[in-house]
Amino acid sequence: MLAIDGGEKIRKIPFPRRHLLGEEEKQAAVSLFDQAIESGNAFGYGGPEEQAYEQEFAEYMGGGYADLVNSGTSALYTALGALELDVAGEVIVPVISDHGGVMPVALLNQVPVPADTQPGSYNIGPKQIEAVLTPHTRAIVVAHISGEPVDMDPVLELARQRGIPVVEDCAQAHGATHTGRLVGTMGTAGIFSTMSGKHHATAAQGGVVFTQDEDLYWRIKRFSDRCKPFNTDATSNLRAGLNLNGNDLSAAVGRVQLRKLPAITQKRQQVAHGIREGIAHLQAISVGWQVPNTESVYWFMRIHVDASRLTADKNKVAAAISAEGIPLSVYYGRIISDTTWFRERNVFGASDYPWGLEEYKGDRNAQFPCPNAVEARETHFALRIHEGWGEQEVEDTAKAFEKIEHAYLK
Q1: How far apart are CA 116 and CA 45, in angstroms?
Q2: What does the pLDDT look like over 14-24, one tens digit per residue?
Q3: pLDDT at residue 333 tops 90
Q4: Is the Cβ–Cβ distance between 330 and 377 less than 8 Å?
Q5: Orientation angle between helical segments 248-278 and 48-60, nearest 10 degrees
Q6: Where are the alpha helices (H) located in 108-205, listed in sequence order?
Q7: 151 backbone φψ class: left, alpha, beta (φ>0; ψ -120 to 50)
Q8: 301: helix, coil or strand?
């Protein structure tokens, strides 16, 4: 009998906690406090720890330039702000994303234009991007949702043909690769969230902007710190901007975390591959399709349910698996174009800016049906794995999937 119907659970004990932070991070923080106490000088931002973290992050990415900021949302805001896009244009955005991966577009007076996902994926697709390109497109934001890389080469070719910058949102994809290239290194800039739920963290919150373009790096550095005139001859701030800085305490924790990142991503991949192998024989439940020649880092595992082979829909299957003691979310994210702030254009008070700007020459009443994204949400659930899982967790998960499929298989 299934656990959801009153039977015995497959997993009778809780899954292990992640234990992301440990003694090494604690000691890094304590050391910084000790230095401040001994010297009498409070630590701040832009100091030795932050500079070291930024250098080490750039080295991890294979070379380039990094700027630590205070969140992933701030990282996207900074990257787009540094591009100095003319206002009242359009920026193509993923339709399935965190709101922080889209809102900065509107806050910079650009109209966000959602592109549908690639069929069978949560990720924005190249053909779907092409379908919403217009003469008003100023930039493209792609998000590597759940740690799965977007199909980047055709996206980059579209952008190259039109001279449009591409910003990679790697918030959920630290260390993921596309044809051997790290995500975040292929576009004009890459942005990362380093909050405590991500693959590596700069304590509670944080974000990084990465680029291989030195000129863009200095524009990033200026924009994230109230547009101070870094690396210029100017004597005052160059533009209006916000204080989006990271800080030395976050960086001290982040430096320890960054050293752990390769092992963290490797273990997540090991767990995911074990689950993939454990359920490979199933007919209706499988790991979601991924772009060939890519390697995900599995912020979560996207699990596909073929309800046509079952007597239950995806929601019922997910609920039954959850009842067996397996951690999952029935849905991931929202369709951005269906959310209140987007539909009601709640960005700048009672105005409908940026859509209502006189300078905007695009379709103010455009609709964004995204059938692929809707289908992806209805046919997948999110399995919440992490690097703390071991063989028993992999085995229990595969057993639960098999038990549920066997119960509901036609």
Answers
A1: 39
A2: 999 999 999 99
A3: no
A4: no
A5: 30
A6: 126-132, 152-162
A7: beta
A8: strand
